[in-house]
Amino acid sequence: MEKHARTLLVVISEAALEKRLVADSLRLGAQGYTVHDVRGGSRLSTREALWEADRSIEMKLICTPEVAEAIARHVMDSYAPHYSLTLFFAGVEVLRPEKY
Fold first, then answer.
1. Cβ neighbours for 59, distance < 8 A, ≥ 6 positions apart
2. How many Å is the Cα radius of gyration of the chain?
3. Which of 2, 3, 47, 93 is the most buried (most CB within 10 A)?
4. Within a domain: residue 43?
């Protein structure tokens, strides 16, 4: 099987950002995304999703390294100063590169 390298960008953020993150990601070149509702915490705080303003999402995007970098840069510049965010990258291999 022929595999093709891509980048997985994971954004964990406040749920209030979901529509903006989706629109921004598609505008910056992502071909698709997956979003899940998540809960979690750190030594600084806990987000248990007990009420609407306490909800968090995890958004996953598989794309070229350049698109992943552009999306991450935009998210950090636009939202990190005002919202709770975690972003990370991972290398992945895909079988249908035209989808990403």
1. 10, 11, 12, 13, 18, 21, 22, 25, 33, 34, 35
2. 14
3. 47
4. yes
User: Apex CA 95: angle with CA 66 and CA 89, to 5°?
Assistant: 35
Looking at residue 40, its pLDDT comes to 78
**pLDDT confidence tier of residue 41, bands split at 50, 70 and 90:** confident
* Sheet architecture: strand order including 85-94: 34-38, 56-63, 4-14, 85-94
State the pLDDT at residue 72: 98
CA atoms 57, 68, 29, 74: torsion sign: positive
Question: Are 26 and 18 in contact, with CB atoms under 8 Å apart?
Answer: no
Q: What is the pTM of this model?
A: 0.88
User: CATH code at 83?
Assistant: 3.30.70.120
Query: Is the pLDDT assigned to residue 65 strictly greater than 70?
Result: yes
* Domain-located, residue 61: no
Residue 33 lies inside a defined structural domain of this protein: yes
